[in-house]
Every structure is written in structure tokens, then in C-alpha cells.
Amino acid sequence: MKPTNFSKYLTDFLLRYLPHERGASTNTIHSYRDTFTLYLVYMESKGVKAEKLTMESITKENILSFLDWLETKRSCCTSTRNLRLAAIQSFFKYLQYQSSDHLYEYQEIMAINNKKSVKPIMNYLTVEEMKILLQQPDTTKPKGRRDLALLSLMYDTACRVSEVISLTPQCVRLDEPYTVIITGKGNKNRVVPMLEEQLDILKIYMKENGLLRSECLQHPLFTNCWGEKLTRAGVANILDRYIKKAKLLHPTLMKGKISCHSLRHSKAMHLLQAGVNLVYIRDILGHVNVQTTEIYARADSKVKREAIEKAYIKVVQEVDTKPMWQGNEKLMEKLGISYVSCSHVGTIVHLALDGKYAGHGTCYTLPSGIFNDDYHVFGINWSKGKIEWYVDDQIVRTVDYSDDQRALECIDRPQYIEFNL
Questions:
Q1: Which residue among 267, 287, 334, 376 is the active-site one?
Q2: Residue 342's pLDDT is what?
Q3: Catalytic pick from 33, 261, 350, 397?
Q4: Is 298 a catalytic residue?
Q5: Which residue in the list 160, 190, 265, 270 is annotated as catalytic?
């Protein structure tokens, strides 16, 4: 079988151009490779097998259909769709200088725009929620000690999951000043300081697993039960397990979806709330410029609220929120009820205060009522054996008439009473 021109150019793109000419990182190359693996799956679903795929069969309409397939059939989000499009456009940008026979078609594909997406609200844990999460691993077992070292290191250094699984023992400085060297995007290294408490947790784990020996310096820092380097899915599974445990103990906490990246967001937000300069937060996170780090300042409602409170100028007149009945001696005297006399005279109900006639009104069979006079607005809820008086929507007195047969006879269901006292 004769190789196709697509297979030739794609192999050269992935194995020569990206690593040697562009100097792309391993993660970038893997991401591009996965994009074209998905494209081959899509084309096979359309009846075109990988060994039959040629450059002539790849068109703008074909690529757009593939991107829609990612969203509809594979349930990819818009950002993932745009990421796959970037990989495809990088390939065709490379092809412009390798094969100019179909330059117009290549540039049509390169002209496809990213799809706009709604940016989700940043989800992060509070300091209290973070403490609860780190209390979940069972430190009496080796796996629990590994998980505590892993999760606490991810939070303390604000590293990405791809960065933490790539760590080796030689990346950790065990002498003062305690630091860890993290290799981030684009193979860029950054030195992140560690607290002594974090180092103690990590040192116990490393000593237990023999990672302090010189021959293990290149060994993965965090491994699974088979001694292999943890994967992204493995770290996500560890975090999900402890998130579920924490939610069972504290159902009102940790709302929304918590991912591995949420720990990175949490550390950045806690540093910002503690007053750390954005420039230092940028360096810890490994951002290229401080504009990227500003998303945390925009997302933190607490910092924005404090800034508004500091700059607040009082321009609104104060409103007395004290209930109308407080401080009104005449009204308070009326509320000193010791006995209520109720009798039906047609539709008339009589009210007695301290055994003396105080007024009367019309009775309606409605759920609740309102009394009006010159001093106040208050209501009354009637049920069998009990009357609740409330003023300005606040209950101020409950009178129990369970032994008063006359009240039971007259008040056999909720009443609405309007009095003019």
C-alpha cells in the first residue's frame, strides 16, 4: 500500500517540525497528536479510512463539520473545540511552505475563527474548605500520606496537575530556603517557595518511599500502586474521592464542581486576599504577564467589596429601621393582652383588653389579618387554642387559649379581623 501525502506531512509535522524547529513541549505535541487522532476517527465515521486520507480530501467544510462533531457527539466544550482548531491551523500554516499546490484551501482553513464562549465563573475553595479537604486523607495508611503530600503540594505551590505529576525528587530543595522547581508551559522553569510545614509532610512521604536516595533523584515524585508515574486522570480521581468525603461531612460547603485546577485558583485567591502583590502571584503561578493574573482580582468579590467600602461616601439619608411599635408607650400598653373575648354577633367580633371592651370589627374567613389604627399596623394569626400577635411582621406575643372553650368555639379556623380601635 502506498503511503498518502497526508501521512507524510503529518508525521513530519509531529516528529520533526514541532520538537526540533518550534521547540514545542511534550504536552503540546501530545495535544496536537490527539487532535489528529480524533480527526482520523471522525473521517472513518464518514467512510474514509486513515490509510485512504489525502490532503485533497481535507477542506474548510470538512474541518467545520469535524469541529461540530466534537461538540455534539463527544460533548466537548467550546474551549476544547477552539484548542483543536488551533492545532489544525498550526499544521496548515506549516503546510504552506511544504506544499503550495493547495495554498488557497490551506488559507481558508487558517481563516476559520474561534467560537465565542461564555467564560464560567471561577470556582475555588475558601481557606476553611481547604482545611477540611486536607483533613480527609487517612494518614495512618501509606496511600493516605501520599495523597496528603500530593494535594497539599498542589495547593501550596499552585501548580498545574501536569506540572505536579512531572516532578522528581531532585526538584525539591530540602535545605533552607525550601523551594521546588516547577516546569510549566513551554518548558519554562520557575522556583516556588515552600513553607516548612509543607516540607515536613513531603519529607515524611519521600523518606517512607525511599525517594531521598541519590539513585532515585530522577524517579517520579508521585506514583501509583504499581510504581508508575501518576496520570492526570489518576490525580483527578484522588481529588474527587476526598471532595466526596468532605461533602458528606459538610454538605453546605464546596458548592459546584471542584477540579484539580480549582486548587491552583484557591491558592491564588488566598494570596490575593492576604494582600500579596499581583506581580508575586504572577511569578508563583508562572504566568507570562500580570494581565493574566488579574482575573483573580476581577473574580474576588471580597476584595472588590472592601475597596468599595473604603471609597464609600454617605449620600443617602439614614432610614429608621426600628419597628414602629418600639418606644410607643400607648401601643405597648395595648399589646399587654391578658384575655381575649370573642363572640359572634352576626359577623361582629368583640375584642377585650384586660377584660375590658376595646373595640369590635368584622370577621372574614381568610388566613391572616391586619389591624389598623393611628399608631401601628399589626396582625394576628388564629388557630385552635392559640393566637399569635405580630407587629411589623415580627411576632411580639403568643397567647394560648387551649382551655378556653368559648375561644375554641369561636376560633375554629384561621380568621381575618379588621379593627378600628
A1: 287
A2: 38
A3: 261
A4: no
A5: 160
| Active-site pick, 185, 203, 247, 386 | 185
Q: Are 273 and 267 in contact (CB under 8 A)?
A: no
185 is catalytic: yes
- Active-site residue, from 145, 146, 190, 264: 264
Report the predicted TM-score, pTM, of the whole model to 2 decimal places.
0.61
pLDDT tens digits along 74-119:
999 898 999 999 999 999 999 998 887 788 889 999 999 999 877 7
Q: Is there a catalytic annotation at residue 261?
A: yes
171-203 pLDDT, tens digit per residue, is 999 888 899 999 988 788 999 999 888 899 999
Is 17 among the residues known to form the active site?
Answer: no
